[in-house]
UniProtKB/TrEMBL annotation:
Family: Belongs to the 'GDSL' lipolytic enzyme family.
Ranges that cross the membrane: 7-25
Subcellular location field: Secreted
Matching SUPFAM superfamilies: SGNH hydrolase
Main localization category: secreted
Gene source species: Artemisia annua
Keyword Transmembrane helix among UniProt keywords: yes
InterPro entries, per database record: GDSL, GDSL_esterase/lipase, SGNH_hydro_sf, SGNH_plant_lipase-like
Keyword Hydrolase (UniProt): yes
Pfam families for this protein: Lipase_GDSL
Entry's Gene Ontology molecular function annotations: hydrolase activity, acting on ester bonds
Record GO biological process: lipid catabolic process
Protein name as it appears in the record: SGNH hydrolase-type esterase domain-containing protein
Amino acid sequence: MARELRIFCSFLIFVGVMHIVTFVVTGEPQVPCYFIFGDSLVDSGNNNKLATAAKANYRPYGIDFPQGITGRFTNGRTVADLIGEFLGFTEFIPPYATATDNEIRTGVNYGSGSAGIREESGSHLGDRISLDRQLNNHVTTISRLSLLQSNKTFTNEYLKKCIYLSNIGSNDYINNYLMPNNYPTRNIYTVDEYAALLVEQYFQQLKMLYDLGARKVAVFGLGQIGCAPAEIARFGTNGKPCVEWINDAVKIFNEKLKSIVNELNNDYPDGKFTFINLTSISAPQGDLPIPSPPCCRVGEDGQCVPNSTPCLLRALSVFYDGFHPTETANTVIATRSYIALSPMDASPYDISHLARL
Ligand SMILES: *[C@@H]1O[C@H](CO)[C@@H](O)[C@H](O)[C@H]1NC(C)=O
Ligand SMILES: *[C@@H]1O[C@H](CO)[C@@H](O)[C@H](O)[C@H]1NC(C)=O
């Protein structure tokens, strides 16, 4: 009951905020371009042609998405899609895998399911586009844009106006540290050492993004992986609602991530980086979200069983499969990262503020 009530409250808040957002979104987008980096939480089809088990280009994924099945790991729109709408983009930002010259002017989505900050994360599932490779792809996009715009000064100024969203790191836990049979990291590093190592690498990657012209960057912290149905099924909860030690590990990562975001703001006064706190956003009352069963029938791998029939009350479900939120949950996340409801949601700026800077 408490859970339903909480979801319902988020809904009311969401409906309230939607009014403001609808008001803002008229005419031109807030920024000319929007680039998306990350994993399956934002992937919009980049994995479809890769040799990997981490794909979502089959039913029942995409059942509530306007264009149907696209490779998005949810029933409808992702957080990145929704933020794009709030920013005023009338089309979804195209995946890098298929983006045409005409499409890249408004941005590119580089997200790749199972990808991580670390190169090897997700490798037991097959190919994936790690964050380093996503950054290399961005270098290629910039060359394409430079050719199209045929004015280097213009392109440089243009890139500074875009919003950049980065949502990555979950697979460095789920498909790396939490799988000691497939990856050595847990035998080498303590939870604290591993978080420090990840965040140091992410710091370098975000600096590279800055060097490539990014000035408005929203960095998403990790959600509470210990509350994902697939992790609960794997590790058990000892009578608690979630796998506490996993959430503790994620918390350490998030705290360190927030501090490097502050450090980037100090190191680069003309760069505006902001940290989005998913813990704050997903728990409106400040306590742990109560985990809920996934909407679709999931296999051993936590993904929806192909062609299975998903639950009917998708609008009231938090998880679509064993790992990924439903469009409803994505809407709450996107809405509160766009316009923060609590000062904890986004710091120092929410995305609507970032767009106006
Ligand atoms: C190139 O772009 C800059 C910045 O928008 C502009 O000031 C300049 O006039 C442009 N140069 C040419 C040759 O069009
Ligand atoms: C995120 O928000 C939660 C809940 O408000 C808070 O306890 C936590 O310290 C925040 N995390 C960071 C890294 O700021």
